[in-house]
Amino acid sequence: MSERDAPSTVPFRGGGFTTRPYRWVGFAVFALLLVFAEVGTRIGFISPLTLPRPSDVLGTFRDLYASGMLWTHLAPSLTRLCVGALLGAGAGIATGVLIGLFSYVRAGLSPVVAALFPIPKIALLPLFVIWFGIDEGSKYALIAFGTFTPTVVATYGAVDNVDRTLIRMGQSFGLSWISIVRKIVLPGAMPGILSGLRISLAIAIILLVAAEMLGAEHGIGAYILEAGALFDLERLFAGVVILSLLGVLLSFSIGLLERRVLRWRS
Fold this sequence. Notes:
Layout: H1 23-43, H2 54-67, H3 69-101, H4 103-116, H5 125-132, H6 136-160, H7 164-172, H8 177-212, H9 220-229, H10 233-261
Helix pairs in contact: 2-10, 3-4, 3-6, 3-8, 5-6, 6-8, 7-8, 8-10, 9-10
């Protein structure tokens, strides 16, 4: 056999657009932004009246932690966020699955969800205050309602996108309705449900701040409102950074859940 007739090695091309976790890139971008802000405010390129120095914001964090006020504001915010988001997301997933599986439920609830979804949830805060009072009830209700509608839309959309060939295959093998839902529909819809949860939890943080700016003595939203009223940029940015870190933590938690639940995709 000549060299021309010898079989050549064909490179593998079936990677399936697999992403690589270059985590250091994100840390590098954050570090460069912080260095730019620190240097810019020190040399006068950036006015300290518009952007505080990151080192001063870090000092504010230290003062908050040393005085115990960090946990004083963070604890009620975490409680409101967890309770409201759990109620809204749980009800949203259950409703979305029902809409995706049952024709009568879809016919009855889809128009209602479509009517509620575009309503700015912050605009309903005064109404929730009238219904549930100015205490914790209105805050829980606002966060739960704001989390509910996007979770419903994401869930029943994910259920609709499950491959019907797999469902027909399960029916052909004689699987019960419960088994098909548990083994085919829910695992197939889980990527879309978790993606919807990312959006819903981000909305929940936004509504948390709005709710705490009205009638809350403690909380990250109340802390930011007080700092803004005093034009205290260091405290204001400290509160914003806390919310940003909270969002990153929630996104990281959803990512861990995805890797655990969706191991079958790898």
